[in-house]
Amino acid sequence: MKIDFNNFDSLFKVMNYFTTDAVCKQTLAESRWLDGDVVCPYCGGHHCHLCKDGRYLCKECNHKFNVTVGTIFENTKISLRKWFIAMYLISSHKKGIASHQLARDIDVTQKTAWFMLQKIRSLYGQSDETALEDEVECDEMYLGGREKNKHQSKKTEGTQGRSTKTKTPIFGMVQREGDLRAMMVTDTKGSTLMPIIKQFVKDNAHLFTDEHNGYNDLHAEGSSYEHSIIRHKENQYSDGNGVTTNTIEGFWAHFKRSIFGIYHFVSVGYLQRYIDESVYRWNTRKATESSRFQDMFRMSEKVYTYKHVRMVA
What is the tens place of the pLDDT at every residue in 148-196? Predict the structure, then answer.
């Protein structure tokens, strides 16, 4: 009988079901090979059969392999029960979970919990195939550079406004009642933002932005976009006719609460992973905890090692 992920609507039910690693492996096998056709991760051969030692044997290349090979759990020394609980916690908490808290929850060291979270975050990468259309809001934000909290002698001059001396610019686009994309950018000039907009927003879309000069090219001759501007400098946040950027502003507020309230500090080297995590939460905000938990299994077929962590830093 196939596992029904709809049953996992609470942490208690997750812990009550996944009582042994054998149950975890069976669930992982069922989620990887839905039709029961076990595929070899080495050569792609089909119909591999289960051996008495719990591993699978490929008749094509004669390789034996565990169900975790080719997933983020490959070669892990941590119990799959702890992995599954961590997956549920990070996918169900609206603003994420800190490594210190996860370490206490599943009884591992903070360093181990941090590495597990980085592995899980690697599953949230945004697809380059996402296309936004209809009504799309665009906006930029700057993370870091909280100069007002520093001693006067340690403040950096010239960090007001859109300076990137101590701040990291992030650009976001959201389709109203649809998906959202966000990413780190080098700056918010038109030469940087326009290629991103053209890549991810369909030609016939209606764009809503603030008065930032980086969007001036949307009015250039030959531009296929309809463009409406909300003037924040004039304390205008909605004109009553749908011209607003409140949706993307709402995401920025959620993202900031996650970074400052849960993680407190994120280095630039790992920032995109945290952005991806917040984007995933936003895009699945109407989904149930059980469906997001199932999604973790669907996406877990990806090899990720400590080397990949260091490559990001």
Answer: 565 555 555 655 555 556 689 999 999 999 999 999 999 999 999 999 9
**Per DSSP, what are the bridge partners of residue 184?**
170
Q: Report percent pLDDT > 90 for the chain.
A: 58
Contact criterion met (CB below 8 Å) for 262 and 149:
no
**Helix%, strand%, coil% for the chain, nearest 5:** 45, 15, 45
What gap in Å lies between CA 208 and CA 210, rounded to an integer?
7
The encoded tokens of residue 205 equal 């879309």
The per-residue pLDDT for 81 is 95
pTM: 0.85
Picking from 230, 262, 47, the residue whose alpha carbon sits closest to that of residue 135 is 230
Pick the closest to residue 232 from 96, 97, 139 (CA basis). Answer: 139
One-letter identity of residue 150? K
Distance CA 264, CA 100 (A): 12
Which of 36-45's residues contact partners 24+ apart within 8 Å by CB, and which partners? 40/65, 41/65, 41/69, 41/70
Q: Which of 308, 310, 265 is nearest to 125 (CA)?
A: 308
Separation between Cα atoms, residue 311 and residue 270, nearest integer Å: 10
pLDDT reported for residue 162: 54
Mean pLDDT of 25-49: 90
Give the containing element (helix H, strand E) for 180: strand 180-184
